[in-house]
Amino acid sequence: MWLSGYRSDMDSTKASALDAEAERLGLGLLRFDYSGHGRSEGRLEDGTVSNWLEEALAIVRAETDGPQILVGSSMGGYIALLLARALNAAGEGERLAGLVLIAPAVDFTEALIWANAPEAARRAIMEEGAWRPPSAYSEEPNVFTRALIEDGRKHLLLGGMIRAHCPVAVLQGMRDDAVPYAHALALMERLGADSATLTLVKDGDHRLSRPEDISLLFATLERMIEHAGAAAGGEDGRLPGL
Q1: Which pLDDT tens digit goes with each residue over 11-67?
Q2: Domain spanning 2-106+163-237: CATH superfamily
């Protein structure tokens, strides 16, 4: 299951490449757009972490069968961890076989937006309801609303230990100007009870969508599939039924 980043969508370079790779491996891939993103209806300005998490949770429950590997990019990596927490809290941890997180923007509303926003931007968020800084990835500016910031404080993870209750693989570029690699290191320190690996790409940027980055993603996914298959008792390390 693919989980996109903030203002990205299910037709991105990585998502489309992953779709073709899943077909080659004989696996299904579930992709969707959050409200206010891509092909989905709604306004970006109305979106919150709660909204997007609720949508992801509804989709995984309605549209998946058997253990899933969640592949989340940027905000999608954060949503994947929140999704794992919600499923395990509901007694549905068996739905997850593993997480592959690409530059995971954990607690991004607080740790990456609010913490780094200048005072004028904070005033705009609190008094005017939104801050619209330029985007490095689009001609349209980003939109960070008061609702997004305040809602995000209900979903903070980095203040304590984080449990996914399944293997976690993190891929992180060291030239990422949106999610610094120190952020990935902080996440790894809090995944102490789960099997977790971190791969740093020395010259990788935030997108990690170059051919060599896509190859790294595929190799990571194949290892995750083999691990999940072995854990589930599949033949030759494959997931049962494949």
Answers
A1: 999 999 999 999 999 999 999 999 999 899 999 999 999 999 999 999 999 999 999
A2: Alpha/Beta hydrolase fold, catalytic domain (3.40.50.1820)
CB-based burial of residue 203 (10 Å sphere; 0-12 exposed, 13-18 middle, 19+ buried)?
exposed
Decide: 21 and 14 in contact? Cβ < 8 Å. Answer: no
Distance spanning both ends of the chain, measured CA to CA: 17
209 catalytic per annotation: no
- Cα distance between residue 239 and residue 242, in whole Å: 6
- pTM of this prediction? 0.93
Give the residue extent of every domain in the chain: 2-106+163-237
Q: Which of 37, 183, 206, 227 is catalytic?
A: 206
Q: Which of 37, 176, 183, 213 is catalytic?
A: 176
Q: Are 166 and 130 in contact (CB under 8 A)?
A: no
Select which of 4, 74, 107, 213 is catalytic.
Answer: 74
Would you call 74 a catalytic residue per the annotation? yes
